[in-house]
Amino acid sequence: MPAAVEERPKKVAKVAAPAAAAVKAASPGSGKKKKKNDENSAPRATAAAGEQAVEYIPSEELGAASHPKAKAAGLVAELDSKDWIRACEALNDARSLAIHHPALLNPILEKVVLAIVKTMKNPRSAVLKTSIMACTDIFNSFGNLLSVSDDAFDKLLLQLLLKASQDKRFVCEEAEKAMRAMAASMPPLPLLKKLKAYVHHANLRVRAKAAVAISHCAARMDIEAMKEFGMSALLQVAAELLNDRLPEAREAARSVVGSMHGAFAKEAAARGEQEGDAPAVAASWESLCSLSLPPISAQAVTKITSSQ
């Protein structure tokens, strides 16, 4: 028993020895670094804290740049910066130029649009939201963005549809706002031709957001613009969206049908048909639907207009 008692201290001493060596290794003269954990030291700034510090400035509060020509000259390079804070500042510069100095932004508009598309793919929330806000200001200032190349606009449209379909609410709402500005400022017919391709998109939410934008276009079109697009083609788009799985897409399709029927009835009245002669207008409308759609789809479309 005495021998066993004496062995225990030796065993403890062996275990304690590495700890002592570790303390020695961590000393300043050892040349090895140890992670500091001082409760009195200030916490390091994190990326999340930086994003919270980014201010999202409303368009009406965005002032003019002090040196707009210099800002425009270096804008594309700044938008491509690896520093996300500089990228956010450049996006706000682009917004300011679009609002207060559109003539300076116009010569480089296509390059700016492509750079904004790139920032819209940035994983940082601050960069993403500011880039979408820049889209809204550019739409409001320039209106017809089809002045840029088809490639640039197609990339921008796709990103807006994808961002409007996200789960992040603040991103989705900002993208929807940008798409409303797009539908309100651009000529409806060429925009409708661009949006038509997304009716068959594999993503349900992208289809729904495209359907909403299509309904906004249809609401701004007169009968001549609808005929240029194709009354049958537009009816087919609406009929396909009426069978979509998402209620948002189906509601947008009903809005398209309502806009078409309203324009159709207005043209009938302009041709001299009495507005009170609803049966004649209804018969002409049903005939158009029957010629353009399969029987089941035609019945669904005419049911919408008969209940209005």
TrEMBL record:
Region (Disordered): 23-51
GO CC entries: cytoplasmic microtubule
Molecular-function GO term, any one: microtubule binding
Membrane-crossing residue ranges in chain numbering: none
InterPro entries hit by this protein: ARM-like, ARM-type_fold, TOG
GO biological processes: microtubule cytoskeleton organization
TOG domain mapped to chain residues: 55-295
Annotated protein name in UniProt: TOG domain-containing protein
UniProt organism field: Dichanthelium oligosanthes
